[in-house]
Amino acid sequence: MTVELRPTGVACNIQCQYCYQNPIRDADNVPRSYDLEAMKAAVEREGGPFTVFGGEPLLVAEEDLETLWAWGLERWGSNGIQTNGVLINDNHVRMFHQYKVEVGISIDGPGELNDVRWAGTLERTREDTARTEAAIERLCREGIPPSLIVTLHRGNATSDKLPALQDWFRRLEGMGITSARLHDLEVEGDDVGAAYALSHEENMAAFTSFAALETELSTLRFDVFDDMRNLLVGNDDQTTCVWNACDPYTTRAVRGVEGTGQSSNCGRTNKDGIDFVKAPAEGFERYLALYHTPQEHGGCSGCRFFIMCKGQCPGTAIDGDWRNRTRDCELWKGMFRHLEEGMLDAGMQPLSASPERAQIEGAFLDLWSAGRSLTIAGARRWMNEGRDLAAVSAGGGSHGDIPHGDSDA
Ligand SMILES: C[S@@+](CC[C@H](N)C(=O)[O-])C[C@H]1O[C@@H](n2cnc3c(N)ncnc32)[C@H](O)[C@@H]1O
Ligand code: SF4
Ligand code: SF4
């Protein structure tokens, strides 16, 4: 599991209109300084290694990035960064090589498809997008291709825009990109939803079109589909956090360290603009409640995909209230159905259509009631090995916002 180091908190050089960190900016909880020694001590306390995250981590002074990465290389043998890519310069590229920095870049498509990642004026936005595109090409040319995060919304994934987005992925594969993460849009507030959210039908059309594109591509993978297929067969030890019963007060997959050295949670759970202190123990009340609550009241009761989906990320819950299931239920249910159908056609038996499902659901309810959680694969092992609760530690989930994150399962 990777520590997310956020020296400058949510400070950013651009203003993506949909950013889930906007409530923190609106509350003016943006730090003005950071303390290198306090951050290093906190990363050690969390057990490292770390990825530099933000806001925008390239706002950190270059000499301080060098200090952190030289230390990270010596201590853990590699480093990471998750950036919008706009500010990448020659010195950064030198450091990426020298300190073995795995680079993740966020961009929602070429040219106008990236306009929602706004930089103040249309001209500035297009210039910044061109800079990010150039940085991706350069890193590919220099043999260190970044992994990409692409968020799908009205600006890049309606039916008129999908062909251009798909062509871009074909070109990226040709350049050497092998890993892309597709984000569904997390909606913070009605205004963002009205302006940028795809309808459920549009979301389904977009995601199924990318599942189809993947079969045409040979080396570029969209990890969301691998996750969902692996969940359907219970081979889910390496899946991302959104499928792994995340407690919004501890966010197991995200051990954040702020510029002061304070530890923090995943920003997706922060709906009030305040970074609450991490809770010392995990609770699974959300998942027990979702299992028992009818779907018309915000729960998941009776859903055959529950052990795979678990109501998905609490940061995306209906009405911003983590007790509810995700507002994107229709998308995920539709995609699980789509992938399930493909498996049944291929003569496989996904867990959603297997009598074993009820047993695994029972195991999860027992684990959660005891304040524990596992992956499906872990629950199967636990059942086979005599259901010893004392032997269970939490399982599953690397953070969905850093594509090179590893898993703690
Ligand atoms: C908050 S940014 C921080 C790191 C860096 N500034 C970047 O752009 O990669 C982390 C990731 O979250 C994504 N993101 C931000 N708001 C989002 C939202 N509302 N829904 C889905 N993804 C979002 C960004 O596009 C980016 O990939
Ligand atoms: S993105 Fe992951 S860590 Fe963050 S709230 Fe969602 S499930 Fe939890
Ligand atoms: S698909 Fe919908 S109902 Fe089923 S577990 Fe996921 S959020 Fe709940």
SSE layout:
Blueprint: E1 3-6, E2 15-16, H1 22-26, H2 36-46, E3 50-52, H3 62-76, E4 79-83, H4 90-98, E5 101-106, E6 117-118, H5 122-141, E7 147-152, H6 162-175, E8 179-184, H7 190-196, H8 200-216, E9 221-222, H9 223-233, E10 255-258, E11 263-264, H10 285-292, H11 306-309, H12 329-345, H13 356-369, H14 376-384
Parallel strand pairs: 1-3, 1-10, 3-4, 4-5, 5-7, 7-8, 8-9
Antiparallel strand pairs: 2-6, 10-11
The structure holds S-adenosylmethionine (SAM) and iron/sulfur cluster (2 copies).
Return residue spans where pLDDT drops below 50 for at least 5 consecutive residues: 405-409
Q: Provide mean pLDDT, rounded.
A: 94
Helix content: 25-40%
Strand order of the largest sheet: 9-8-7-5-4-3-1-10-11
Strand percent estimate: 5-15%
Distance between the termini: 9 Å
CATH superfamily of the domain at 3-224: Aldolase class I
Overall spatial form: globular
Provide the gyration radius in Å: 21 Å
Structural class: alpha/beta
Number of helices: 14
- Which molecules other than protein and nucleic acid are bound? S-adenosylmethionine, iron/sulfur cluster
Characterize the biggest β-sheet.
Answer: 9 strands, mixed
| CATH topology description of the domain at 3-224 | TIM Barrel
Which series of helices and strands comes N to C?
EEHHEHEHEEHEHEHHEHEEHHHHH
- What is the strand tally? 11
